[in-house]
Amino acid sequence: MCPFIKVDEGNSGDINLHYEDYGEGKPVILIHGYPLSSRAWEKQIPALLDAGYRVITYDRRGFGNSSQPWSGYDPDTFTEDLHRLVTKLNLHDFVLVGHSMAGEELARYIGKYGTEDVSKVVFISAVTPFLRKTDDNPEGLDESLFEEIKNAVIEDRPAFMTQFCTDFYNMDALEGKRVSKHAYQASWNTAIEASPKGSIDCVDTWGTDFREDLKRVDVPTLVIHGDQDRIVPFKNSGKRMPDFVKNSKLVVIKDGPHGIAWTHNEEVNRELLNFLG
């Protein structure tokens, strides 16, 4: 039976997160991004286990095998879910690894709880530090872009996910070279099974300001980003991370799309394992 942890209550029952816990050694928590599940780490889990780490993955609320409540799709609630898992498993001296939207949990977790139990942090294709353009954040993206995405999800979620997954892997450039149509289809299947409400609400979080949270990161930090990311453009996100996280290393994956954990898994795994030491 798959393990679950109760993180909240809904109208008619518990809100549970599905998680998996493998191996022994130093704990590494892998947090997937939108709109996938913990299966997104399929190419990282064996490499980490072979290197002697304990690997913990979970499906964020609304995704994968976790509960799909009507609410709670915001950075603070996602972070509380992570904290409850950490507490349940009594984890200390652990590494946090987040892809895409999961960069929110990494930043907000440290912003709220500090780094007493966190030894290292890895941001992969993450939405941090602040994607929305404002007067004091001219490097961000226009507000209209987020509204267009949200409206597209509302109007026709299956069609939106078709294009999203295409851009997730840069299928026009990488299909048959670094990603198969079958891997694309598997991602679409996962995406379409996610909470429709969560798929809409999550878009609102992508423009959250995490700059102050990131200033509290005082442990070794690795930032990995593809230079051809069409979902979270490198110049608006990963490129800016060293400005806010002093003790960070930036690795740019040449020709890398958003889904580099799959398409460029050898490069990502090598950088990840070298960083973990």
Automatic annotation (TrEMBL):
Keywords, ordered alphabetically: Oxidoreductase, Peroxidase
Domain AB hydrolase-1: 26-264
GO molecular function: peroxidase activity
InterPro entries: AB_hydrolase, AB_hydrolase_1, AB_hydrolase_fold, Epox_hydrolase-like
Range of residues in the leader sequence: none
Coiled-coil zones: none
Pfam families: Abhydrolase_1
Name the UniProt record assigns to this protein: Bromoperoxidase
Taxonomic source organism: Methanobacterium bryantii
